Amino acid sequence: MQQTQSRDDDWSKLLVLVGSRQDRAAFERLFHHYAPLIKGFHYSRSAQAFSAEAADELVQEVMFRVWRKAASFDPTRASANTWIYTIMRNCRIDMLRRNSRRQDADGGDVEVDDIWDDSPESQPLLVLQHKRSQRDIAAGLRSLPAEQSHVLEKAYMEGKSHSEISNELGLPLGTVKSRVRLALKKLEAILSKQGAS
Predict the structure, then answer these.
(1) What is the pTM assigned to this prediction?
(2) Does the domain formed by 133-197 have CATH 3.30.1360.120?
(3) Domain 1-101+112-129 belongs to what topology?
(4) Contacts 24+ apart (CB under 8 A), 58-65
(5) What is the mean pLDDT of residues 51-79?
């Protein structure tokens, strides 16, 4: 019988400290690490559905749930990344549903693109987080076609929504979304190769 091992990565250890001791310093480190990733996730999925303030709201809601539920985190069953990603995904879907209900009178719908595909191969932000290294990501961005790296930098470095990028660059919104998606997939592949070498 295979023995289940506990995750011993830094983020899982910090999450265990938050759950077992309500360790504020550990939570603060988790917050500073995951907040930009949560915002990036928000901006990558659909700028149409929410205002820019919604990214901050999503961060607050996710990290509040992380603090409240940290005691239920089991490092033998999942890593902190997977566990927090699941909370983030659920919060995002909840926000989409609330937003959709508010817009129903105007005929607003939740787009298929707004629901994150949770199959492992469709989690570029999660893979990027695992491989995260400023040097590797910078090299990866340089290897992308200019039009893709440009929209990715605007979305993640400048924190702009897809709509803002579309207006600023004079591109159709669908083109911006496609370029971001393609760039993330290429960057994921580049970082995966670097991680394997």
Answers:
(1) 0.52
(2) no
(3) Rna Polymerase Sigma Factor; Chain: A (1.10.1740)
(4) 58/88, 58/91, 58/92, 58/95, 59/35, 61/91, 61/94, 61/95, 62/34, 62/38, 62/87, 62/88, 62/91, 63/27, 63/30, 63/31, 63/34, 63/35, 63/38, 65/91
(5) 87
